[in-house]
Amino acid sequence: MAKTKTSFFCQNCGAQYAKWLGQCKSCNEWNTIVExxxxxxxxxxxxxxxxxKKANKAVKINEIATVKEDRVSTKNNELNRVxxxxxxxxxxxxxxxxxxxxxxxxxxxxxxxxxxxxxxxxGEESQAQIKMRAERLxxxxxxxxxxxxxxxxxxxxxxxxxxPEIVVIDSIQTLHTDxxxxxxxxxxxxxxxxxxxxxxxxxxxxxxxxxxHITKDGNIAGPKILEHMVDVVLQFEGDRNHxxxxxxxxxNRYGSTSELGIYEMLNNGLNEIINPSEILxxxxxxxxxxxxxxxxxxxxxxxxxxxxxxxxxxxYGTPQRSxxxxxxxxxxxxxxxxxxxxxxxxxxxxxxxxxxxxxKVDDPAIDLAVISAILASNEDEAIAQDFCFAAExxxxxxxxxxxxxxxxxxxxxxxxxxxxxxxxxNKLSKDNFTIKVVKVTKVEDVFSNLFV
Length: 452
Ligand code: TYD
Ligand code: MG
Known about the structure:
With 452 residues, this protein is α/β, with parallel strands linked by helices.
């Protein structure tokens, strides 16, 4: 028997060392280096092809023939959009997200609706559990095969037998290969099993979807190189207590990363949301103080989002500032601007801020809606329900232009808003919108126009 060979791996970045160290030299994290058993063998699990290595020739870029990637539609418009038009043949897609967010549901839904021969490999759930989920989704696909297996060599054996057109792995952290001895989920296992699957995908032009766990700080568990190895990295996010889920591309070798897919989790699976703006604005009959609508842009997709603020007298000595879906530091900055530049005394008030629908927003264009909601709550006056806002606030209280303002205006117009507040410095190529565009330069200008 060959001598057991071990090596030390940083669990954070995947760097390999010959001996143990307290701090990783590559990512500077402490106590992340763990010994793992490896058995290095040159052979790979997936069929070995060319034995003799031939050197490749360099070719002029102009002479390379353009090939249009062959795409498979997933029968799911939101996912197709995020992928850039469907699954590319031979591509490897990594889908990450928190536990319970709906990763398995999304891929099973695709596997059932795609009407192609799919092999769904699960290392986490039994066949009965998957069947139960499929029944919940109320979909069937004659050609969807379920395999509960964690050994890649056995998986490849089944693949050779079934010749699936799409392979789904739930999840990469549960797989192990015979060629490496460390435990499933360890850095070397993840790296090796992914490499084997990538080799399989490229050689057979079969798309592979990998589900990946994430660590507590939101990154995909395993070495960072995992994300470099695959072609597409998708992130599925949202608040588990809310129904909305957002699918984003973090990396896409075949399309843009600014596309976004929006779903809601219902009793019978994930439902695609075609008009997100209409849903994210809460329906109410009467005017309530403390809400304002922001015309934001997530990637390239305009989204009308409702901001709710509650300003009340602080009961305790230190006023509280609490936010959901918005950066608390940014809120503190906006409050300081209001205090210093516009003379509003909010220093002794509690301020709570909430973005409805459990969505996180980092688009700075939401600033103006945030301060409008805060002031409306402070004054206890309602802003008309058909007003909306799209501008960033600077430290001097100036209202700054935002990108793609016309797209936001058109979205607001489409949804029947009557007025949109934007920065005076935003250049518009036309000015005959049906919606009234109010251009403002200072925070004070907004308030004189708000409550009418
Ligand atoms: P799941 O896909 O198992 O999450 P993940 O694979 O990301 O861990 O989804 C888990 C949650 O989704 C679970 O809490 C129940 C909920 N769910 C629904 O609300 N409706 C459904 O139709 C399904 C299948 C799941
Ligand atoms: Mg799962």
